[in-house]
Amino acid sequence: MVEGSTDRLLKQYKHWRDIELLVGALFEKHEDDAMVGPTMRCIIREQFIRTRMADRYFYDLPKVFNEHQLTEIRKVTLARIFCDNSNNVTMMQKNVFLIPEMADLRPCNSQSIPKININHWSEMVDTFQK
Predict the structure, then answer these.
(1) Which end of the chain is more exposed for a tag (fewer CB within 10 A), N or C?
(2) Nearest-CA neighbor of 27 among 46, 48, 12?
(3) Cβ contact 103:121 at 8 Å
(4) Helix %, strand %, coil % of the chain (to 5)
(5) How would residue 9 be classed by pLDDT, with cut points 50, 70 and 90?
(6) Could you give the CA distance from residue 35 to residue 40 in angstroms, rounded to a whole number?
(7) Which DSSP string do the residues of 55-92 spell out, in sequence order?
């Protein structure tokens, strides 16, 4: 934000309540751990919650998966997905969002990149076959 921009904005309006929501939110001071101010943070959070709750197939809603299945799903990382679905990938860093260093690379078959245990879905297969 440009120094003094809030003061200039307030000169354009009779009262701070007259400022358009998006303009005001963009001028808000960012919170320490965010790229937005408190108003946009609240709006974004609320929208994510509503989107998740409206998705009847979202994985952690009640009666979609049992607790054992949820535990397995929560173990999956993007590193595991890359290991399982890329051609000839045998090494991967645990956090794929960081620039890798050779010391960070782990074998795809190591415990540090856990695999999902699909045996927890076996009763679902039995139900469909009956």
Answers:
(1) C
(2) 12
(3) no
(4) 50, 5, 45
(5) confident
(6) 9
(7) -TT-TTSTTTS-HHHHHHHHH--HHHHHHHHSTT--EE
Three-state SS annotation for 22-45: HHHHHHCCCCCCCCCCHHHHHHHH
Instruction: Report which secondary-structure segment, H or E, holds 93.
Output: strand 91-93
Other C-beta atoms lying within 10 Å of the C-beta of residue 83: 21
Tokens of 51: 């989107």
Q: What is the pLDDT of residues 105-124, one digit of tens each?
A: 999 998 889 998 989 888 65
CA angle 52, 56, 57 (to 5 degrees): 90
